[in-house]
Sequence to fold (185 residues):
Amino acid sequence: ALKSSLVNVAEDGDDFIIGVGVPVATPMNEMKELSRLLKGTHEIKCRNDATGEKKQLTVNVKKCQVIPEPYGTYYWTLKERKVDVAIDAVLIDIGHGSTDFLSMYHGRPMRQSSGSLNEATDTLTSRIAKKLNDQTGKIIRPYELMKSIELGRESVMIGGETFSIKDVKNYYAEQISKIMVDEAQ
Fold:
């Protein structure tokens, strides 16, 4: 992922300082090890499948900060509100594969009061897909439902028929939200 990201912005010989987000539940020793592994010189060789263009370059990662993913949300929120420090806050980062929550107390992260949950957007789409599979007898892939949910649609087209997802989406979203609230409390 690092190499594919850098290939789009780097020139041969460039130096970088990077930040990498990991789930809150990632142990500190793993974060330090990841930082150590990402620092240093990297050879990047790639080929654009669409154009056939090949690129080869060497980049140097001078420093790599590995932090829990919700820190990005924390700093963005502070910047948007033109505030330097939020004294007490709970940030919830709902992702596709997991939901991370970060508790801040007196402006400092409380790792023991933070964590990761398996419930996330893919949990919602998987449950909706299962319900639609049972209802229609057709195979609906959870990933395909994500766009409909992002667009706020309340129905989907399956095999030429329209099916409402409003009630099932609201039901499972509420159940998943309760799990997140319970964990945050």
Remarks:
- The radius of gyration is 21 Å.
